[in-house]
Amino acid sequence: MIAYNKTSLDNRLVEQQAAEALAAGAISQEEYGKVKMAHPVGFYTPNVFIRIGLFILTVVIIAFSLGLLALITNASNENAFAALFIITGLITCGALEFIVYNKHHFRSGVDDALLWLAMVLIVSGIELAGDMLSAMALCRIVFLLALFGALRFADSVMALVAYAALLGIVFNTGLQLGSIGRTILPFLVMAVSTGIYILSTALSSKERYRHYRGGLTLLTAATLLSFYAAGNYFIVRETSISLLDSPPSAALPLGGLFWILTISLPFLYVARGIQKKDTVFLWTGLALIAAAVFTIRHYYSVLPLEWALVTGGIVMIVLSYTLIKYLRTPRHGFTSEAADAKHILAGLHLESLVIAETFAPTTPTPSNDFQFGGGSGGGGGAGGEY
Amino acid sequence: MDPHLFKKLHAEGLITDDALQKVTTLEEHRLFSLHWELKTILYLGVVLLSGGLGILIYKNIDTIGHQAILAFIAAICAGCFTYCFRNKAPFSPLKVPAPNTAFDYILLLGCLTFVAFIGYLQFAYTVFGTAYGLATFIPMVILFFSAYYFDHLGVLSLAITNLAAWAGIAVTPLRILRDNAFEDSRLIYTGLVLGLLLVLLGLTSVRRNFKSHFEFTYTNFGLHLLFIAALAGQFTQYRVYGLWFLGVVGIAYYFYRYAMKQRSFYIFLVLTFYTYISLSYMIVRLLAAMAFQDAGPLYLGFVYFIFSAFVLIKVLIIVNRKMKAHDSL
């Protein structure tokens, strides 16, 4: 099913593991070289910056080719454009297969761009041709196409798109079921999230599906997020007001349950992340704590903003500082020291750029804002030299 | 690391018994690193706290009074710098690692409060009168001094943005295009001079081997500033846009040699795109200047973009191979 060369994919995994072992000091440079020789990767996978460049250029080529085709064929009505989009999409698909088969591109930027463009072009073509397709039909088409893309090219983003489309299908099914469907909609989404979560973790542990692991990890994170979203008071309430036409003043049925889910789920995620040493749970949980805080603050003004910021900030600083100190010597299998894997972006000194951006000085402009001191400065500011 | 895989590699005779043993022990005693999680929380905490304090002060300015606030900021600043002077490692022109994790953050806080102090002084009492330059010049000197004396890349970036602010340009990534009015030709020339200065500073730090690890930060700021200033020149000074294009090519050539020497994919990508934008602008202007009775130039434009993108893809792939080949040497 996977378009890429299987042996090369396997050897790539071997090479990654060997590189990790080399960085950890478990194997020598010589051994690493031997492993690489014995497991050659036949892919063209450039450096990440080149990948970005190739991606943009591929988009440029396809966009202008589409424009040129439209010029030549003198397309003027919707149907002509629909045909043009679909044909270009199919050609893009062909180019993708060619690049992968004959040029052995793998995550080179070119294959990513072609896959996404093919998807966008074909879906927009169908949408144009179908003349206002129903949301349900659109979700089904996107789901099928994205699922195919995810399976054939082991693409993580396609997996996420397919999952989003699946949720769209569930949502629309719930709407079609009438008032019962609307009430159980959040639980339907939770059930689907749980189902896909179980499925993706099960598949992820299977040797057979090793090439899909990256996408499956992302999918797991997405299911955690969608499960939380389906239980979040704010989201459930706002959706029922805007999409399901319930009056804004009406109390949300089962409101108490949704409040419990809103507040407890993030902490449960974090707890599980720590218990199982699972990064996906940990990060999702940490991010969702912020979501829970925002939800509470949206409905209840617990504290004035400035005091909320100050107390929140102090709690976070104290907590993280204590943990950093406490875990400096590793305890219970945790450490606060950096893992040895070096991040590619570290070379860009990203942190220092972030600092400069957050605390950027404003360029001095002589303007009338500077009149605070009063006295002789007023009004003359604009003519001042600086 | 997957122990099964390494057993297989061992069976293939690719790794020694010793290495296999090491991998299994490492895997058994694997530590779960919370480094980035904790650091992120710490950083967010600092941002929230300072934001909250800012609002608090803003709301209560009448009861607190400017002097109390200034004294408070000055106290934090003095405290931070005292700590840094007491705990710093001895100065060396080479890279000096921070004595502990907290040191870098305390220094940063000291520098930021110093900038805030000067800014506040000017805001509340107009101490520097209309000599606005002085209000950015003093923090800049202190920032450069701190960056070199305590060896801190973040403070160096702050110092560079302050230097640019002193010259009248915003150079942080999000503001460089938004906050600058490039129609003003003086701004373009200032940008060119400043960019050149930064590149030279980068070169000097390597040549003299004086804090040579600062070089990338200087060059990176200089690179973007030079290109953006030259492109702004090309876009705004219509009559001589060809000359500006030559300027862009010249800058690109310099950085191409630099990227090859440093084997920097990042720099190569950046220079390629700036040059591509410049070249495309030239072509589009030339085509637009042709008679527009028929659609011929329009077709040519589309063909140009398709063809040039193909060529650039080839170039990127070839250069990538070339750099990788050097990599293995």
In short:
The complex is a heterodimer of chains A (386) and B (329). Chain A has 386 residues and is mostly helical. Chain A contains 14 helices and 1 strand.
* Helix-strand topology string of chain B: HHEHHHHHHHHHHH
Q: Assembly state here?
A: heterodimer
Q: Which class do the helix and strand fractions of chain A yield?
A: mainly alpha
Count of helix runs of chain A: 14
Shape designation of chain A: globular
Q: What's the count of strands of chain B? A: 1
Query: Quick one: which chains have the greatest interface?
Result: A-B, 92 and 100 residues
What is the molecular shape of chain B?
Answer: flat
Beta content of chain A: under 5%
Averaged pLDDT of chain A: 82
Average pLDDT rating of chain B: 85
SSE inventory with pairings:
The complex is a heterodimer of chains A (386) and B (329).
Chain A: H1 6-23, H2 29-38, H3 48-73, H4 78-102, H5 110-130, H6 135-153, H7 156-176, H8 178-204, H9 213-231, H10 233-242, H11 255-276, H12 279-299, H13 305-326, E1 334-335, H14 350-358
Helix pairs in contact in A: 1-2, 3-4, 3-5, 4-5, 5-6, 6-7, 7-8, 7-9, 8-9, 9-12, 11-12
Chain B: H1 3-11, H2 17-28, E1 32-33, H3 35-59, H4 61-64, H5 66-87, H6 101-125, H7 132-150, H8 153-167, H9 185-207, H10 215-236, H11 241-262, H12 265-289, H13 296-327
